[in-house]
């Protein structure tokens, strides 16, 4: 890993966090996921091909002062300023301390860039756990910068009055929004999520799930793997993928967070996934699911063969969750996404 992932990050250095008018740069995330899937030999060829789509990163505009950072939240034009800000933070403190401080502060905007901010941060943290190098520290700065620059809050803040429900039970209390007219369908996931603004019925969603419940994170990812299977037919394959990969990335950050911050961070993780369902979904679960007959290695090979960044990242997330909670819904969801995202 010390050579391969750093070579990939070096190849991607200088590329911006977005391209094509608002699409997220998945290069660092998918490269790290390929390594975790045991396909390190595929990392550099994949990055070489993927980076052809990417654009150069924007330049600095105005330094972010330590006491004025809140004013720069959600300002994508300041993403380079945010990267410089977090590079300073990481130069002054160990990366674990930076995560412990900043992940809770950014958690209310966890749905930033359709959860790509927290996802990229999770991949960067896991890479650093394997060994600290300047390139990996720089990638963490880039990841946190993207989270901050695309910071986006959903309606509702935790009141700490939990509804006491498991994630599947809480999902059944979420009423999806009516589908927009065909000519009014938003393009980006974040535009779908903005449909929740001014919807008081969603404000209480953040408190519905009992984050202190047994195996909360596994219940959360299992529930939203079922949401994926139940709703992917609506044309929102990638949207519902993020309802799993976002919480999965959050799991990677939890060991580094202050104990007192964890409950609210988990509430925002649940809220983000529930928001995707409320804005884009129709059904809260897929019913009984059988695992596909493929071996885990076969599923990995199929995901890698697609060349698709979402198929790779989603399969890695589902297989990682399956290792902790061996439920067939994870494998079925990965198999479906591989088929849906396979390139011709």
Short description:
Helices cover 55% and strands 1% of the residues.
Keywords:
344 residues; mainly alpha; 2 domains; two-stranded antiparallel sheet; 16 helices; globular
Low-confidence runs (pLDDT<50, min 5 residues)? Answer: none
Kindly name the structural category. mainly alpha
Order of helices and strands: HEEHHHHHHHHHHHHHHH
- The total count of strands amounts to 2
Oligomeric state of the chains present here: single chain
User: What is the number of helices?
Assistant: 16
Shape: globular
Radius of gyration from the alpha-carbon trace, in angstroms:
19 Å
Termini gap:
31 Å
Overall pLDDT metric: 96
Helix content: 55-70%
Could you walk me through the main structural features you see in this protein, from its secondary elements to its overall organization?
The chain folds into 2 domains: 4-149, no CATH class; 157-344, no CATH class. Helix content is 55%, strand content 1%. It is built from 16 helices and 2 strands. The chain has a two-stranded antiparallel sheet with strand order 1-2. The model has no long low-confidence stretch (mean pLDDT 96).
Could you outline the blueprint of secondary structure elements for this entry?
Elements: H1 4-12, E1 18-19, E2 23-24, H2 27-36, H3 43-50, H4 79-92, H5 95-106, H6 116-129, H7 134-149, H8 167-171, H9 189-193, H10 200-203, H11 216-231, H12 237-253, H13 262-280, H14 296-306, H15 309-324, H16 328-341
Antiparallel strand pairs: 1-2
């Amino acid at each position: 890993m010390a050579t391969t992932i750093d070579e990939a990050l070096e190849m991607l250095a200088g590329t911006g966090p977005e391209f094509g008018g608002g699409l997220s740069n998945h290069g660092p995330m998918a490269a790290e996921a390929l390594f975790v899937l045991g396909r390190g030999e595929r990392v550099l060829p994949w990055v070489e091909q993927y980076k052809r789509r990417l654009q150069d990163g924007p330049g600095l505009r105005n330094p972010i002062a330590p006491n004025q950072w809140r004013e720069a939240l959600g300002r994508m034009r300041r993403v380079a300023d945010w990267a410089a800000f977090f590079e300073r933070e990481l130069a002054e403190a160990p990366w674990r301390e930076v995560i412990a401080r900043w992940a809770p502060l950014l958690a209310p905007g966890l749905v930033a860039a359709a959860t790509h901010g927290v996802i990229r941060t999770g991949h960067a943290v896991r890479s650093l756990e394997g060994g600290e190098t300047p390139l990996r520290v720089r990638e963490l700065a880039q990841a946190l910068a993207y989270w901050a620059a695309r910071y986006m809050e959903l309606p509702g803040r935790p009141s700490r009055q939990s509804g006491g429900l498991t994630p599947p039970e809480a999902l059944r209390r979420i009423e999806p929004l009516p589908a927009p007219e065909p000519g009014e369908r938003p393009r980006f996931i974040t535009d779908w999520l903005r449909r929740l603004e001014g919807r008081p019925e969603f404000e209480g969603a953040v408190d519905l799930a009992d984050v202190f419940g047994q195996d909360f994170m596994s219940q959360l990812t299992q529930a939203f793997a079922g949401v994926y299977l139940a709703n992917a037919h609506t044309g929102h394959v990638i949207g519902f993928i993020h309802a799993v990969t976002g919480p999965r990335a959050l799991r990677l950050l939890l060991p580094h967070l202050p104990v007192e911050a964890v409950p609210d961070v988990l509430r925002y993780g649940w809220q983000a996934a529930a928001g995707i369902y409320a804005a884009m979904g129709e059904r809260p679960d897929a019913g009984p699911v059988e695992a596909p007959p493929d071996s885990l290695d076969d599923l990995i090979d199929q995901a890698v063969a697609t060349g698709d960044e979402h198929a790779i990242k989603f399969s890695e997330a589902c297989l990682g969750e399956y290792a902790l909670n061996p439920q067939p819904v994870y494998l079925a969801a990965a198999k479906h996404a591989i088929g849906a995202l396979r390139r011709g």
